[in-house]
Automatic annotation (TrEMBL):
It catalyses: L-glutaminyl-[protein] + L-lysyl-[protein] = [protein]-L-lysyl-N(6)-5-L-glutamyl-[protein] + NH4(+). It comes from Sinocyclocheilus grahami (Dianchi golden-line fish). It holds the Pfam family Transglut_N. This is protein-glutamine gamma-glutamyltransferase. Keywords: Acyltransferase, Calcium, Metal-binding, Transferase. GO terms for biological process: blood coagulation, fibrin clot formation; nervous system development. It comes from the Eukaryota. The lineage of its organism: Eukaryota, Metazoa, Chordata, Craniata, Vertebrata. InterPro entries: Ig-like_fold, Ig_E-set, Papain-like_cys_pep_sf, Transglutaminase, Transglutaminase-like, Transglutaminase-like_sf, Transglutaminase_animal, Transglutaminase_C. Residues 246-339 form the Transglutaminase-like domain. GO terms for molecular function: metal ion binding; protein-glutamine gamma-glutamyltransferase activity. Belongs to the transglutaminase superfamily. Transglutaminase family.
Length: 663
């Protein structure tokens, strides 16, 4: 079988004697193991070359020579010789061919080409000499070997999640990842350098510039491909990419890019994890200010608001030593393959040190300023008049970068890692980091501080199911010694998770008087009949409140995203899962809406249990049910995760997962 091994780990070859060793029974022979990197691109470009690290000779026996790969005899038995080979820690990763030449006093013999003795060399997080070395075994188990993960989404007050099949050990996935490198014409020089490979990998996951793996699409039209919300894992995507000869796969959004990049990295031996940043700024102007333009009535002016705040944005972190940076900036590095902005001419981002981001040290490679802005932009509300003039009415320095989380080691819970990216808001360390960022080229916060109104407003909402009526609560807190009267306009619109707004479905005015040092609650009724006709694929509603204090004429504003929960999908197991024994899995769904669901897809996937299965249904009537049963025969014991996803044009993000313990 083909060998799968990290660099600098010893691999064992058994060289069978007859007829190759027929003259070597009583004298030592010199064994020469020849290794050639097997690449799938133009053979002229990748012709084996000793100087380029694609042709390696390992000498064992009389003719030992100095080399970066180590070879030695492990043992002999009759005509069989067992030799150990240890690759160099900085060697090129990829698939190698092997040839054995035996030199004796009677001549020289060499083996023929045998694909069964090909092997793969990967990066090695177990070896301190490798850039990607991780000291704790629990971290290696989670960030290299775990083939199922959790990707978080929703919004910071209502976190939701979905399981994702990384599937780095699925058959064909490693070859597909190497094809990504070949199709992207990654120079051989970079294939032994984890830093360069990670940077190039972030570009090769998206199809911008280089026909990479995935086509991004945020249009809601997925008729020529698969909706991003329908995928359940990476293997299906990578294997399709390989089967189609490097043709980009349709379609992806941020969590799909992050999930597939995570597979790519773990598959090549690089420790990686998916991180979600809630309230993530996309600062088009790079000035650390996210500008929200309101019209005269307090609603968002979509034509003039260029910046956006994503409810959440998923990217990756990789763990590596950075010899190109000061030592304290090694460790976790941000890498992002979602095509937002170009870096050195390509749509890619990172790797950039998390520790450097926290310190505001933005002068080191790569793309630190962009990542810093995603976490630290100020949210600035402007109001425009009918002539197009604008003025600042409020500044919120705490809205962006609310929360950063990732899957906890050996757990289905999440870890709050916000403190690894930023210091507590308003602390001395936070101010020092901002000053450092300004010294490194970030535009200073040069707007004039607004006079304190003494009145604060906030919106609250409970967790709401899609299709339900609900109430918004507007809390008005008067922290002055004078009674105040507030007139407020509440605008509700449908919004993508990327912060791009769509149809306005609600416009309502409210007024309230608030006594000194008191808080008044104002209730706003929101009916399903108002928002359902305009709802987009990810069920997000944005409410913007614009208020004016009648006594002072001062303005105040706030906004809140409400993420609606999709309908439920249930998974039930019948029988006891045992190796070699059948058991049943039933997936059920009920249509809770008063409209027909058409062209419904149901996807099932479980690494190590079943390959991806796809079922299609023409329609599900209002109140109607879908029930699908599958028979599964486990081949291996242990914990498995079965993932299910139901998807159609009018209902997205209907997912569930179930842990199954195979005895």
């Amino acid at each position: 079988p083909q060998h799968l091994m990290p660099s600098s780990h010893c691999m064992i070859f058994k060289v069978i004697g007859s007829p190759l060793f027929s003259h070597c029974t009583t004298i030592w022979a010199s064994i020469q193991l020849l290794l050639r990197l097997n690449c799938m691109m133009d053979t002229k470009v990748f012709s084996p070359d000793e100087n380029r690290g694609t042709y390696i000779a390992v000498f064992i026996g009389k003719e030992k020579r100095d080399g970066r790969w180590n070879g030695r005899v492990i043992g002999t038995q009759g005509n069989d010789v067992t030799v150990g080979i240890t690759p160099d820690a900085s060697c090129i990763i990829g698939r190698f061919r092997t040839f054995v030449t035996v030199v004796t006093d009677f001549g020289k013999q060499r083996t023929q080409r045998n694909p069964d003795t090909d092997f793969y060399v990967l990066f090695n997080p177990w070896d301190p000499a490798d850039l990607v070395y991780v000291s704790r075994d629990t971290d290696r188990q989670e960030y290299v070997l775990n083939d199922v993960g959790i990707i978080y989404n929703g919004e910071f007050n209502n976190i939701t999640s979905r399981s994702w099949n990384y599937g780095q050990f699925e058959e064909g996935v490693l070859d597909a990842c190497l094809l990504v490198l070949d199709a992207g014409k990654v120079p051989l020089l970079y294939r032994g350098n984890a830093i360069e490979l990670v940077r190039l990998g972030s570009a090769l996951m998206n199809s911008q510039d280089d026909n990479g793996v995935l086509v991004g699409n945020w249009s809601s039209d997925y008729s020529i491909g698969t909706a991003p919300t329908a995928w359940t894992g990476s293997p299906e995507i990578l294997l399709k990419y390989a089967k189609d000869g490097g043709l980009p796969v349709c379609f992806a959004q941020c969590w799909v890019f992050a999930g597939v990049l995570n597979t790519f990295l773990r598959c090549l031996g690089i420790p990686a994890r998916v991180v979600t940043n809630f309230a993530s700024a996309h600062d088009n102007t790079g000035n650390l200010k996210t500008d929200i333009i309101l019209d005269e009535n307090g609603g968002m002016n979509r034509s003039r608001t260029r910046d956006s705040i994503w409810n959440y944005h998923s990217w990756n972190e990789v763990y590596m030593r950075r010899p190109d940076l000061p030592e304290k900036y090694s460790g976790w590095q941000v890498v992002d393959s979602t095509p937002q902005e170009t870096s050195d001419g390509l749509y890619r981002c990172g790797p950039t040190s998390v520790n450097a981001i926290k310190d505001g040290e933005l002068s080191y490679p790569f793309d630190a300023r962009f990542v810093f802005a995603e976490l630290n932009s100020d949210l600035i509300y402007y109001q425009s008049d009918k002539y197009g003039n604008t003025k600042i009415i409020q500044v919120d320095t705490t809205y962006v970068g609310k929360l950063l989380i990732t899957k906890r080691v050996n757990s289905n819970a999440y870890d709050d890692i916000t403190s690894t990216y930023k210091y507590p808001e308003g602390s001395d360390k936070d101010r020092q980091a901002m000053q450092m960022a300004e010294h490194r080229g970030i535009a200073p916060r040069d707007y004039i501080p607004l006079a304190e109104t003494g009145v604060h407003i906030e919106l609250q909402a409970d967790t709401i199911k899609m299709g339900e009526n609900f109430k918004l609560t507007l809390n008005i807190k008067n922290q002055t010694s004078q009674k105040c009267t507030i007139s407020a306009t509440i605008t509700g619109c449908v919004v993508y998770y990327t912060g791009v707004t769509s149809s306005i479905f609600k416009l309502e005015s409210k007024a309230a008087s608030v006594d000194p040092w008191k808080t008044t609650k104002v209730m706003i009724d929101v009916k399903a009949s108002e928002y359902m006709p305009y709802l987009l694929e990810q069920y997000n509603l944005l409410f913007v409140v614009y208020g004016r204090i009648q006594e002072t004429g001062m303005a105040l504003t706030t906004m809140r995203v409400v993420a609606l929960r999709p309908p439920e999908l249930t998974i039930k197991v019948t029988g006891t899962p045992r190796v070699g024994k059948d058991f049943m899995v039933t997936v059920s769904f009920r249509n809770p809406f008063n409209f027909i669901l058409k062209n419904v897809q149901l996807r099932l996937e479980s690494p190590g249990l079943i390959l991806t299965k796809l079922k299609t249904y023409d329609q599900i009537a209002p109140g109607g049910t879908l029930q699908h049963t599958d028979t599964i025969t486990p081949q291996y014991p242990g914990k498995k995760v079965l993932m299910a996803c139901l998807d159609c044009a009018t209902v997205r993000q209907v997912t569930n997962q179930l842990e199954i313990f195979v005895q």
